Structure formats: structure tokens, C-alpha cells
Amino acid sequence: QVQLVESGGGLVQPGGSLRLSCAASGFIFSWNIMGWYRQAPGKQRELVARIASDGSTNYADSMKGRFTISRDNAKNTVYLQMNSLKPEDSAVYYCNVFIMRDYWGQGTQVTVSP
Within 10 A of 39 (CB to CB), how many other CB atoms are there? Predict the structure, then answer.
């Protein structure tokens, strides 16, 4: 079965960096578009970034230039490097893959605070 396991969240000061990881299993990772989404309290889940099987990427406008999505097909892992973090980046970050339907990981909390 499809499994997505996120890690790497935590508490960081404004301007700091974090790298999130998502380990995937149960499907052919290299064939699929992988995504990172986030959800802050009281807000809808929103797209952060996606990466296709060929490595092409797209980002939400507010993350461009600060966040970088990448993938390692040999490790079945997708990453999200987050730099210049702001308090408004605080949210639970989720890994996503769509195979007939959306699959989500359990999420990892990112808190940006002094």
C-alpha cells in the first residue's frame, strides 16, 4: 500500500532553514509527481511545491526563491529545503502523491518563531 512518511519539521527562528524529507513506498516512485502541501490552523491546505518525474518543478508564488523541492529516485524520497523562513510559514507540512486518488503522509509540524 502507498505510504508517505514525513520528517524534519521543528521549531526554527525567523530567517532560519529546515529540510523536510518524505520517504515513499508502495508505488513506483520515479513515475509519479510528488508534492508538498501545508496547512496552518484555520486555513485550507495549500500547495507548496511539486516535482515531476523528469525533475521539473512548480512552486506557489509565496515560496518561490525561498523553497526548493527535489527528489532522489534511488531513495524513494522527496525533499523540501526551506530557507528564509517566516512566521507565516508555520504549518503542518504534508507530502502528497496522486495515484487514482490523493495519498497523504501524517504531516510534520514546522513552527517559525523567535
Answer: 14
Digit-coded pLDDT (tens) for 31-83:
999 999 999 999 999 999 999 999 999 999 988 899 999 999 999 999 999 99
Q: What's the CA gap between 44 and 80, in Å, rounded? A: 20
Residue reference for cell 496547512? 39
Task: Tell me how long the chain is.
Answer: 114
DSSP-H helix ranges across the chain: none
**How large is the average pLDDT for residues 18-43?**
97
Count other C-beta atoms under 10 Å from residue 62's C-beta.
13
Query: CA 15 to CA 39: how far, in whole Å?
Result: 20
User: Measured between alpha carbons, how far is 14 from 43 in angstroms, rounded to an integer?
Assistant: 21
Decide: 32 and 99 in contact? Cβ < 8 Å.
yes
- CA 24 – CA 97 distance, rounded (Å): 9
What are the residues whose beta carbons fall under 8 Å from the beta carbon of 74, sequence distance 6 or more?
Answer: none
